[in-house]
Design a protein that fits this description.
The structure is a single chain. The protein has 5 helices and no strands. It is mostly helical. This is TetR family transcriptional regulator.
Length: 135
């Protein structure tokens, strides 16, 4: 580990302590990885890539010390709920479409069968033909 890497890690640890104590100096004080990176003075991607263990340790401390779920996790949980609801609605719509398709196929089969067996039958008044009727 080089000197810069070690310096970043110590700044991230100090930033964790400040954020959890509610004493931010250079961020908005939210308990997120973005605020942690800003508080530590490191690029957000450096925190995500090189110091992912510290980011996870921060979220673990947020859960343990504040007894709250990190904002990122709350947003993801809400999104999961929304997506599950959307999936349920989509499946219901698909089932309804399948049911209607089956009804159309059955109706077409009945009409074809009637046409082939009942050539002499009169047509009810409420039936509108799409093509001219030929006797």
């Amino acid at each position: 580990m080089n000197q810069q890497h070690g310096d970043e890690r110590s700044r991230i640890r100090a930033a964790m302590d400040r954020l959890l104590a509610g004493q931010p100096t250079s961020s908005n004080g939210s308990l997120t990885a973005v605020a942690l990176a800003a508080e530590a003075g490191v690029h957000r991607m450096a925190l995500q890539k090189r110091h992912a263990d510290l980011k996870e340790a921060f979220y673990a401390r947020v859960r343990a010390e504040t007894h709250q779920t990190p904002e990122v996790e709350r947003r993801l949980r809400k999104e999961v709920v929304r997506l599950k609801e959307a999936l349920g609605e989509s499946r219901a719509a698909e089932a309804e479409s399948r049911r209607r398709a089956e009804q159309v196929v059955l109706a077409a089969a009945v009409l074809i069968l009637r046409k082939s067996t009942d050539q002499d039958q009169t047509v009810p008044e409420n039936v509108i033909f799409l093509r001219p009727f030929r006797d």
